C-alpha cells in the first residue's frame, strides 16, 4: 500500500525586504511663497523654513515653526544685511 501525498516545502525564512521598505515622509513644502516686489496681504505667509535662513524685518513676524508672515499689507522686499545674511520686509511702496 503506497500513499502519495502532495507535499509542498515552504521557505524557512521570511523575505524581509518588502516589509522594511515602502515608507517615506511627505515633503514639507518649505521655501519662498512670494517673490520680490510681489503684493501681499497681512497674515499671508512669505517664507517657510526650519531655523533662521531668512530673518524677519519691517512688518514681518516669525511663527513658532520659523515661518515668516506679513503683519501689514504691502510689497515684499528681500535684502542682505550684516555679513551676507538675508532678511525680508513688507513695505507700503515698491522701492
Topology:
Blueprint: H1 17-20, E1 31-32, E2 39-40, E3 45-48, E4 54-56, E5 60-62, E6 68-70, E7 74-81, E8 85-91
Parallel strand pairs: 4-8
Antiparallel strand pairs: 1-3, 2-7, 3-6, 5-6, 7-8
In short:
This protein has 95 residues and is mainly beta.
Strand order of the largest sheet: 1-3-6-5
Coarse structural class: mainly beta
Question: How many whole angstroms does the radius of gyration measure?
Answer: 28 Å
Unreliable spans are none
Q: What is the average of the pLDDT values?
A: 88
Distance between the termini: 102 Å
CATH-defined architecture of the domain at 30-91: Beta Barrel
Helix/strand order: HEEEEEEEE
How would you sum up the major sheet?
Answer: 4 strands, antiparallel
| The CATH topology of the domain at 30-91 | OB fold (Dihydrolipoamide Acetyltransferase, E2P)
Overall shape: rod-shaped
Written description of the protein model:
This protein has a domain at 30-91: OB fold (Dihydrolipoamide Acetyltransferase, E2P) (Beta Barrel), CATH 2.40.50.100. It is mostly beta strands. The chain contains one helix and eight strands. Helices cover 4% and strands 34% of the residues. It has one helix spanning 17-20; strands spanning 31-32, 39-40, 45-48, 54-56, 60-62, 68-70, 74-81, 85-91. The longest helix is centred in the N-terminal third of the chain and has 4 residues, at 17-20.
Amino acid at each position: 500500500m503506497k500513499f502519495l501525498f502532495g507535499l509542498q516545502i515552504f521557505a524557512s525564512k521570511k523575505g524581509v525586504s518588502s516589509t522594511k521598505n515602502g515608507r517615506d515622509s511627505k515633503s514639507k513644502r518649505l521655501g519662498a511663497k512670494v517673490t520680490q516686489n510681489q503684493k501681499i496681504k497681512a497674515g499671508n505667509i512669505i517664507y517657510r523654513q526650519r531655523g533662521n535662513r531668512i530673518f524677519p524685518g519691517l512688518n514681518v513676524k516669525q511663527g513658532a515653526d520659523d515661518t515668516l508672515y506679513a503683519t501689514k499689507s504691502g510689497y515684499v522686499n528681500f535684502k542682505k544685511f550684516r555679513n551676507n545674511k538675508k532678511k525680508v520686509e513688507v513695505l507700503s511702496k515698491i522701492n
